[in-house]
Amino acid sequence: MRKIRILTYLFLCILFSIPFIGAQYTRIISLAYSHYNDSLPPVPAEITPDSLVLPPDSLLLQTDSLAIALDSVPTDSVPKKKDMLDAIVDYKANDSIVLTAGNMGYLYGNAEVTYTNIKLTGERISVNMDSSLVHATYGLDSVGKEFGYPIFSDRGTDYESKSMRYNFKTQKGHIIDVRSAQGEGYVIGKEAKKNEDNSFFMLGGKYTTCDDHEHPHFYLALTKAKVKPKKNVVTGPAYLVIEGLPLPIGLPFGFFPFSDKYSSGVIMPSYGDDMDRGFNLRDGGYYFAINDNIDLALTGEIFTKGSWGLNARSTYRKRYKYSGSFDGGYLVTKTGEKGVDYAVAKDLRINWTHTQDPKANQFRTLSASVNFSTSSYERNNLGMSYTPQGTQNIKSSSVNFTQRIPNSPWSLSGSVNVSQRSQDSSISLTLPNLTFTMSRIAPFKRKDAAGDERWYEKIQLSYSGEFRNSINTKEDLLLKSNFQKDWNNGMRHSVPISATFSAFNYLNITPSINYNERWYTSKIRKEWDPERNAMVAVDTAYSFNRVYDFSTALSFQTKMYGFFVPVFSKSTTIRHVFTPSITLSYAPDFSSPRWGFYETEHYLDQYGQPRTVKYSPYEQGMFGTAPGSAQGLISFDFDNNLEMKVASESDSTGYKKISLIDNLRFGFSHNMMADSIKWSNINASMRLKFSKSFTINLNAVFDTYMYEADERNPNRGIRVDKLRISHGKGFGRLMSTGYSISPSINQDTFKKLFGKGEDKDKSDKDGETSDGDASSGEGEGTGRRSAFEDKKDDNTYDEDGYVKNQIMWNLGLNFSMNLGYGDFDAVKKEYKYRLTKTFGFNGSIQPTKNWSFNFNSSYDFDAKKIAYMSCNLTRNLHCWSISASFNPVGQYKSYYVTLRASSSMLQDLKQEWRGRTTSYDPNWD
User: Fold this and answer.
1) Of the candidates 550, 546, 543, which has an alpha carbon nearest to the alpha carbon of residue 516?
2) I need a surface site. Which of 216, 626, 814, 831 has the fewest CB within 10 A?
3) CB-count exposure of residue 819 (10 Å: 0-12, 13-18, 19+)
4) Which residues contact 726 (CB under 8 A, 6 or more apart)?
5) pLDDT surpasses 60 at 442
6) CB 873, CB 853: distance < 8 Å
């Protein structure tokens, strides 16, 4: 044990010494190369223009006495010198170019040398034509500021430095203070040696994702490293430096891969602690870059107390075709102690979204929005248990498919729908729901019409057929259900036929006939149960059954206009559009024995009195049954629209329309063939349109009849055939009403409403645009921002030098109220009212460009307190970010804070703080 402690102490000593040893090593290397002078030597003074002129050759002036034939001796006995380079070297400079007798070239002023696919630019460049050596460095302006740093480009990789020596023949070089972008990060080195394969060795380097190269907020100090451009960086001992302070966190070596395309790789897990399930590793796995259209991430989680989970995430996209994402998870949660309260829960979750591009196929569409999970998945998933998504009670999913037949009125659509309620784990599944429709056609209309339109040509008809198969059950019983006994299915056909005729130029007359038919595969026989005092099902017969009904109607409709000029404004006109409608309709009594859709049951009640009741064996079918009584209805509908026209200079017509009441509707009916309760309830609705995006809808139902207490149950009221208006209680009593509103405002709302600040904002934006254009023009021609330049200040300033900051915010409210009948008051013989309200609010604020805060909350009116609230706070720290998510109130109080690097490549460089919770101690901090 003592040896283990000694080895542990020795390992920790070496680990924490790496940063300080590395820093000292880097300092020694820097001093060793401090004598290095990278400036260009000046042009020799002895080089003058006339020194390049050779004196006349005395041998050429003499006459050769020994005349030899010209072709007997070679003209030059010395072999010609072979070229050092196998390609042309192009060079240019803006200022001047000096060539010397020593085969040296000096280029000044934005110089550039190009050899094959290699290019070197800089303010000052010297070239040795004999040795293929080139040397580039920067220049100094009149105030001593450096400019024109050398940039070396080879095979798509750029290196920027202060001094560079390069051999075109060997393709090797020596670089001082190099800076190069690799992937999402930057490699900075004090000294580097470039190799023939375009890689380079580096001493005293830094690797960072911060674009402030001179003073990065954080970096990994690399004592030595090898860089393969666009591939990887392999380092020796390295340590982390934050804000110039070396941290006692060292690495004996490092490997940083790069890729300019999708690549597969390992996803590092995060760790945590949960009181019920123990320590854990979460969200670790492998990422598969399958191709440019689809990817896949397989992750998992494991807990020390036996719980585990798997997750698969994928996104796919094909341009101009479709796009979507898939997220599936499976959890096995083990809690409690064995033999005491041990429990195992298995949960499944499937999220799938699919969208088809409108240009892909104009006749066929497929869309999906699936949010399916078992009722306990959100509670057992640590990442969702305290989020708004994890606390929702109702979830719905749907998959829809539509096929339209070209040049035809026919279309086919199919869907799968799932509705879940987490509170009691109930599920409602419809699989499938098929609809076959034919749009409205005029079968008697002539193709080549001549003369006036005949009356029968106005006859139109359409068809709609629907097949539906559904089940309502619990989650654990869904896969155990019997298709014939537990599933409810059926098919419905509907054929409406109508025509519209005009009379007296102001009256529209519309006769219509509607036919409906239902197909069922079962019917239920019922008998009277004296114990339950109700009809109960005793037998189910499985066979093919048809249930049909039909009705006819005749409708009259017209429009009346009224205009009113108010006294307070002669230029204002109010218009009232009144649209009355009267409809006569008839449907026979399908409960008659001749139709065969109803059966009669005779029984003795609890008092020994003979009773007779009619019921339909198909009333619990998917689409119901035929009406059980004759109907001869007179329906009345009254629509109202109220608009005001006022003078307006902003409108080109000189007038502006304002909607006072977009629609006000009243409707009721009278059944002439009913024995009692002939009048229906009065339905009222109103729509107020304040703007294009703000509309309020109000609905109400008024009860026209009175009530008496039930003899069997005094707490329940029975409607009696007594009109309220006949007993002095008005036309009707408010039976139910509802109202919902979801307004939202932001920093621009009041500007749009009152028109203030628009010109100022516009002028500010124009000014900023012009400034931006001017600034962009300064860098024109450079093509890139130098890595040695100071970080650009993106802030805008006012006249006093303060930073101009626009606060971005928005606030949203959602409120709904429903008023309806509650308990019955036997004394007053009226139902009491019951009021239900829901209220929620959400919002966000961005006080600066780096700070943001958003929240979402709901209020419980019964408990008179905030039921739920989630908040998120984010701070952008340039190359780092810190975020906090917390639930300050409610049952699920928690928090989650994370500090991580902004680069996606360094997502595993993070620190997390999470609030621990447990079922044994929900208030744990």
Assistant:
1) 550
2) 814
3) middle
4) none
5) yes
6) yes
Distance (Å) of CA 71 to CA 67, 75, 80, 433:
12, 9, 19, 103
Which of the four pLDDT bands, split at 50, 70 and 90, describes residue 65?
very low
Tokens representing 565? 């000029």
Which position has the token pair 């989680």?
Answer: 301
Determine the residue type at 569.
S
Is the pLDDT at 817 greater than 60, yes or no? yes
Strand 460-474 and strand 426-441: the pairing is antiparallel
CA distance 709 to 718: 6
Q: What DSSP line would sit under 227-278, residue for residue?
A: EETTTEEEESSEEEEETTEEEEEEES-EEEE--SS---EEEPPEEEEETTTE
Instruction: For the chain, give the mean pLDDT.
Output: 81
Please give the structure tokens belonging to residue 303: 């807990």
Helix (H) / strand (E) element for 11: namely helix 2-32
Q: pTM score, two decimals?
A: 0.65
- Token code pair at residue 614: 């009619």
> What residues have CB less than 8 Å from 585, skipping those under 6 apart?
551, 552, 553, 554, 631, 632, 633, 635
CA 72 from chain centre, in angstroms, equals: 89
Q: How far apart are CA 195 and CA 207, in angstroms?
A: 20
Residues 137-151, mean pLDDT to the nearest whole number: 86
- Copy the structure tokens of residue 72: 């007997």
CA distance 376 to 467: 32
Which is nearest to 262 in space by CA: 301, 241, 292?
A: 292
- Distant-in-sequence, close-in-space partners of 763: CB < 8 Å, separation ≥ 6: none
Separation of alpha carbons 491 and 149, rounded Å: 79
Cα-based distances in Å from 123 to 45, 92, 191, 449, 805: 22, 11, 20, 84, 39
